[in-house]
Amino acid sequence: MDARGRAILAAMCFRFFYALLWTALLPLACLRLLWRARGEAGYLRHWKERFGGGAALPAGRWWLVHAVSVGETRAAAPLVRAILAANEANRVLLTGTTPAGRETAAQLFGTDARVAYRWLPWDHPALVRRWLARIRPQAALVMETEWWPGLFAACAAQGVPLALVNARLSARSARGYARRVRGVVRTMLAVPCAVLAQGRADARRLRFLGARQVTVCGNLKFDVPEDAAQQMLGEQFRAAFGARPVLLLASSRDGEEADFLAALAHADLPPEVLIAIVPRHPQRFDEVARLLERAGLPYARRSRNEAVSQTTRVWLGDSLGELAACYRAADIALIGGSWRPFGGQNLIEACAAGVPVLLGPHTWNFRDAAQAAVTTQAAVQAADFAAALQEAAALLRHDERRIFMAEQARRFARTHQGTCARTLTALQQAGLDFTAPPQ
Fold it and tell me: What are residue 216's DSSP bridge partners?
């Protein structure tokens, strides 16, 4: 058997065992859904969609855009609006996997009848094939790193063009794929008609793993527009906080709040500083509240609209979809996910709001953006929370430097806009015609 024959046989074997694995795992996936619903009831809503069921889509020219959760949904928003603007016949089916992502989509597009939202079915090949045959999209646009073998194979089998949009791949992930499943990844990356990478390093790693038609377009998160409602809410937060400077820990991940509070106990911050903490995941809101109670810190919860008094030390942002408003009410932002090895959360939104940014050592999810922000002095990278709080104290005591960093942050965000236009151009060059009339 020649090399091509071996590759075909290997692909067939993988598909067989992948389907077998999913068949065995479906009961466990249901149990996991029930477990997650204990903290977030939204996981159980629309459960038929997890199996490819649910309400049928109205007739129309549907484009599938898969954005797993909150960050990807916000990043996809400019592209969704551009697709809708290209032709009145266009419709967009947004898919995801988390209640927070679904809530974000409702906030962004809830009144637009041309946008529908569904859970992406579990990746059992049979479920995905039936689902894809039901919706018959013009193309599937998959955001960032959502690589599902069942979805990719179904698109290839049914002739649905698939493109990876806003694609990123860290050095760590690339090494892991190359060591363990390079053949599987190479087969998957042969499917997309276009791979639109965030940066040159991402493009190089994607090509190394077998991606073709790779184009560097930038990061769509730079093109997320200002939200007037969020801006107004941010002003309300700022008024409620009064004249006190606000230090925000944004999108914090598991364990980071405890590390932050431990460092805060020894920090030399001005005494009037109000600490704001916005955890990344809503199921952890109560956990963080208990941390604050154990630390003996007077705090107010956003979800209860509790007033911020002069004795309030911490404001807990335990609400969904209000992070942009929190940035507009802050003087300095520490970006969560970067203080423990999670890879970092989105710093672009903070920069667009004109907030000086402090980053931890783990930023591989936003490597290019983080490096560029540090280079342009929109951000400072610190080794740990102790060093970050020392930097924050210095910024709060030196208005000129803080104002300079805020201006650099806004300039950094503006300079990197234009990704959506480049993305549309690259998709059209790959054969996806968003302007064509329906047939």
Answer: 197
Structure tokens at 377: 């002095």
72 is catalytic: yes
Asked if residue 171 and residue 60 are part of one domain, the reply reads yes
pLDDT at 245 over 70: yes
pLDDT confidence tier of residue 262, bands split at 50, 70 and 90: very high
Which residue segment(s) compose the domain that 143 sits in? Answer: 3-219+418-429
| Whether residue 275 is found in the same domain as residue 343 | yes
Q: How far is CA 164 from CA 142, 200, 210, 211, in A?
A: 5, 15, 13, 10
Catalytic residue among 40, 49, 72, 349: 72
> Domain check: are 320 and 300 in the same one?
yes
56 and 198 fall within a common domain: yes
Please report how the helices 419-429 and 70-86 are oriented relative to each other, as an axis angle in degrees rounded to 10. 60
**pTM, full prediction:** 0.90
| pLDDT tens, position by position, 283-316 | 899 999 999 999 999 999 999 999 999 999 999 9
Give the per-residue pLDDT at 59: 87
**Are 78 and 181 in the same domain?**
yes
Strand 115-119's sheet: what is its strand order? 115-119, 90-96, 61-66, 140-143, 162-167, 194-197, 214-216
CATH number of 173's domain: 3.40.50.11720
pLDDT at 274 over 80: yes
Same domain, 239 and 200: no
Q: Do the domain assignments include residue 439?
A: no
240 and 302 fall within a common domain? yes
Helix, coil or strand: residue 311: coil
In order of 157, 192, 197, 207, 233, the CA distances from 251 in angstroms are 39, 32, 24, 31, 18
Average pLDDT over residues 144-156: 94
The answer to whether the CB of 348 falls within 8 A of the CB of 357 is no
Query: 100 near 69, Cβ under 8 Å?
Result: yes
pLDDT in tens, 355-408: 999 999 999 999 999 999 999 999 999 999 999 999 999 999 999 999 999 999
Report pLDDT for 227.
86
Does one domain contain both 145 and 289?
Answer: no
161 part of a folded domain: yes
**396 closest CA partner among 270, 243, 222:** 270
* Residue 435 domain flag: no
